[in-house]
Amino acid sequence: MVEERRRRTPGSREPEPSAAGGGERWAGYLDWLREDLVSGVLALSEEQRRTTTVASGWTPIELLNHVLHMEQRWFVWGFLGQAVDEPWGDWNVADPSAAEEGGARWAVAASVGAEELARRLRELGEWTGALLCSVPLDTPAALGGRFREDPPTLEWICFHVVAEYARHAGHLDIVVETLREG
After folding, report:
1. Residue 54 in contact with residue 21, Cβ under 8 Å?
2. For residues 176 and 60, what is the distance between their CA atoms, to the nearest angstrom?
3. Cα dihedral across residues 99, 83, 22, 170: positive or negative
4. 0.85 exceeded by pTM
5. Tens of pLDDT, residues 26-63
6. Can you tell me the distance from the alpha carbon of 67 to that of 69, in angstroms, rounded to the nearest whole number?
């Protein structure tokens, strides 16, 4: 099943209603949403990628960096309990939950380009897809990484990550429309 998944074009469209269920379906939806965000950001000029059009101040390249770190936080650090370099590397502070009100925001170094982030996100997506196709969805996350007690199941994490991707894809649609009209 994993080999069949790798032969498809990731994220090319919503998974078919008759497609396999379980982890394969979750992987397909994540591919679709991930690629929607990647293609939306890459379609913009370099200047537009680093331009904010929203009151909260984020830019399209910061959103791309955020979803890369978000997916890594939930599946690598969260589900597997593995250490990751800079789990909050998409923020301008070491731990956004500990920052003063308004002190934390997404950030991307000027030396980091959207193409590099897209490549890393797609690589992470391949890894995530393989994980979802090989581990039962009712498996609880490991303790010791992101979770110290009451770990969620892999399926709960999938639902959370799909919901976060979907929200951000909608946000990006509006920002891209605004940038193209401006």
Report:
1. no
2. 8
3. positive
4. yes
5. 999 999 999 999 999 999 999 999 999 999 999 999 99
6. 5
